[in-house]
Amino acid sequence: MNILVVNAGSSSIKYQLIDMNTEKPLASGIVERIGLKTGAIKHKTFINGEERKTAEEFFIPNHTVGLKRVAELLTNQEVGVISDPSEIQAVGHRLVHGGESFTKTVEITSEVKAKMKELFPLAPLHNPANLTGVEVAEEVFPQAKQIGVFDTAFHQTMPEIAYRYAIPEDLYKEFGLRKYGFHGTSHKYVFEKAAHYLGKKDLKIITIHLGNGASMAAVKNGVCVDTSMGIGPLNGLIMGTRSGSIDPSIIFYLVEQKNYPIEEVNALLNKKSGMLGLTGHSDMRDVEELYFKGDKNAILAYEMYAYRIKQFIGNYTAAMNGLDALVFTAGIGENDKLVRSLVCKNMEYFGITLDSAKNNSRSNNIREINVDEAKTKILVIPTNEELEIAKQAYELIK
């Protein structure tokens, strides 16, 4: 069975075609700059262990044109990996916000699409684009089942004491103002990989997803009991351009005392803060370079970044009454040895002791980076959200 995984943004479409017999990608790519003067498609195929790349630039007026071109590339005589679009049995969609309505993977029906529209206010930048991706895929791949995998679904097992805010109950009942969490597909995937590696599921694990966006989850026996992001992706950890958790009084101060428009505060906290606000750089590789040059702002930023992660480790260890393993994942979690070192420093009370040599090594596979006698395992596990989406879609329709 072939499953196409689609992640549609406002001006882009990321995709990956996965052969579920091998769980390996046949092709992957991205359609970029949709609606702009010059769009672009970067397409890769994987045949017999050989990677081939195709790049195109042309005007891509809308998502339909972009996804139709993807279908043509997938079936192209020279670079194609299938002979006909009908060989794609399902399209798995990454959908950002399912609110309380979607607690598991679903086949997308007219009722599901109607409910997604109702949830637009919870994710105004993401859900409309996600729905566009669904509707375009229905047109381009009419024979395929359309499957929705929600970022928020994995976190819907949180107890009420974890997801409720101490605000008037009417705001929760009428508007759904509560913690939802994100990156759920990644947190679920790496927990299951960790459980398989450790040989049991009866585990208390903290998963740490560190990319440009970053979040953590407390996962007890496979069930999420808490997570760091909230109703939206701004809360929690320091990120590339997001502030993470701050005192809400800062917002009132900027608006009421300094006459900042609320739109400007929104942009400030989401797009101009985090590592960018602290150092002038949002890419951790740039900040790391400055760190080792002795730049004071970069050193402070790294230490703040690690300190916030440590705070959540303490919170979640308390919430689960124990800790068996930490899991670092995503671009920064998998590749930034400095972050891992700072996070694990002076954490012996939690049974966390890093092995520097293991931490400095690199691998594309699961690896253990704790000292052999450590009570708490420290694992680096490459995430694969596309494969997890494909697996969930496959389980639903097989």
Automatic annotation (TrEMBL):
Q: Where in or outside the cell is it found?
A: Cytoplasm
The record's PROSITE patterns line, in alphabetical order, gives:
ACETATE_KINASE_1, ACETATE_KINASE_2
InterPro entries with a match to the protein in the record: Ac/propionate_kinase (IPR004372), Aliphatic_acid_kin_short-chain (IPR000890), Aliphatic_acid_kinase_CS (IPR023865), ATPase_NBD (IPR043129)
Binding annotation for substrate: 94
Which residues does this entry assign to the site Transition state stabilizer? 183, 242
One GO cellular-component annotation of the UniProt record comes to:
cytoplasm
Keywords recorded for this protein, A-Z:
ATP-binding, Cytoplasm, Kinase, Magnesium, Metal-binding, Nucleotide-binding, Transferase
What Enzyme Commission number(s) does the record list for this chain? 2.7.2.1
Can the keyword Ribonucleoprotein be found in this entry's annotation?
Answer: no
Q: What's the main place this protein lives? A: cytoplasm
Q: What are this entry's molecular-function GO terms?
A: acetate kinase activity; ATP binding; magnesium ion binding
* Cofactor(s) essential for the protein: Mg(2+); Mn(2+)
- Sorted alphabetically, which SUPFAM superfamilies does this protein's record hold? Actin-like ATPase domain
Catalytic reaction equation(s): acetate + ATP = acetyl phosphate + ADP
Q: Which domain of life is it from?
A: Bacteria
| Catalytic site | 151 (proton donor/acceptor)
What does the note accompanying the cofactor annotation read?
A: Mg(2+). Can also accept Mn(2+).
One GO process term, biological-process aspect: acetyl-CoA biosynthetic process
Family, per entry: Belongs to the acetokinase family.
The record's annotation in PANTHER family points to:
ACETATE KINASE (PTHR21060), ACETATE KINASE-RELATED (PTHR21060:SF15)
What does this protein do, in the record's words? Answer: Catalyzes the formation of acetyl phosphate from acetate and ATP. Can also catalyze the reverse reaction.
Oligomeric state and interaction partners are given as: Homodimer.
* Protein name as it appears in the record: Acetate kinase
The taxonomic lineage of its organism, from the top, reads: Bacteria, Pseudomonadati, Bacteroidota, Bacteroidia, Marinilabiliales
